Amino acid sequence: MTHTIEIYDATLRDGTQDARVSEVNTHDKLVLAKRLDEYGVDFIELGWPGSNPTDMEAFQAIKDIELKSAKVAAFGSTCKGRDTPSDDKNLQALIETGAPVTTIFGKSHEKHVTHQLKTTLEDNLQGIQNSVLFLKSKGKQVFYDAEHFFDGFKVNSEYALSTVVAALVGGAERIVLCDTNGGTLPHEILDIFLQTKHLLEQNGYGDVKFGMHAHNDGGTAVANNLVIAKYLTQIQATVGGFGERVGNANHTIIIPNLMLKLGIDTNVNLDKTQVLYEQVCEQFNLEPDTNMAFAGKNAFAHKGGIHGDAERKMPGAYCHIDPTLVGNESRLVVSDLSGGANIVDALEKFGIYTQKSDERVRAMLEKIKKLHHDGTPVGLSVAEQYLVAAEYFGLELKCNRRPDLELTYKRVEWEQLGEHEHDTAVLQGVLNGKRVEGFRPAQKGGPIGVAYEALRDIYTSQYPEVGEIKLIDWKDRVIALQGAKSVVRVYIDFVNHEDEWRVYGVSDNILNAGLTAITKGFDYYVMRHKNLKEK
User: Fold this and answer.
1) Is pLDDT at 266 greater than 60 in this prediction?
2) CATH number 3.40.1350.10 is the correct assignment for the domain at 405-529
């Protein structure tokens, strides 16, 4: 029987604690939760509801989203000592989320119990057991994270083991051993794990379902999972290894190694690995690590002359796996490969079937290459792909004519009078041959907000249905450092009652970038979703 490991994704809780991640709001979490569900992870740790109101908001909002297979997990801690679980605000918050899975951590290291919790070793055991019992009584699936387990085992193996037993007695369904400080080496992980497994079996716990939660402070988090993978039921990790300090175990690397090297199965769609990594980076407002194993742009790139020559003669000569298995591709840095197959695949999403030899495919490829070079990641946005496809395959798409807007005058101002801030937007131009104007007087909302409303006024003058659209999120990032004239990329997410889409704008002026993105968002909606009459 094939060994299958559950993938417990902690990107939306542990991953957001990464120092490089400035802000992750409810919208970000919902977008990524859907992506993770499509990827096929088994559990999505959405947050720690007892620590902040934003996470609780995300748990309430995700109730309106139908996930295909992933279960939502809420994270928290055990109650302290002999406190009554029903009176513990943290445990109550876990119940209030409505999440079917709760993951709670408890102290396995005796010094953390006495110095950090300032309670007795026995009371800590009671708190662990009672917390698990309480959550189980509320119908929750309970996973127990044994915090600092490996370090605690080195100091007092008997006590570390007793904390696990307390969780098992309470009814924990998974015992997740944590290398919380991330400094344990692979041979130590294997030795301590095997000792733990053996000692539990000797004490009548022979069917424990183990998980692993590793941090990467010593650079061995991936190895620490792989070395005991054949014994594990669950791996807790994050996309791209995002997390506290230098990060968590990186399941973008772990999962391909499990499935392609160790013969261990998971439920993920492996060919979505590369795009998922880029989507998480985009939502976190970070540039992807091009040298990331498996998912990085350079993971299968060949620059050396000998390598390049070998790849031309025998594709895969210098690749340890077939790159397409993880959704990546082999490329020669110094050459200009066609990439036409990627365009053909993208067109099929829109019902267009053609061949790489089609001249329009080649033209579309060159356009997309230029857009990527200039800073627009077309591959991460269906809307961006559609807009480019419409330039070359408009008849086959049977889409409405793209609105023809030229803004001849743009003024967006910010003003502060005492404690009050106001933004004003005035836009003038020509839409489909008719003069138009959008005006928003001094109001709150920020420059992008008033510019959006002014531009929406312009569009709704000819396309009333555009009024149904809502701007639900936007972020900006400097993508080319040139001092005061740095190039900025803005992405904006739109939604209506039946769809959601993202578009980009790139400029050395953040307002121009924003206006470009808004315009493209409106154009996409008009072209694809509405049967509008020509005005």
Assistant:
1) yes
2) no
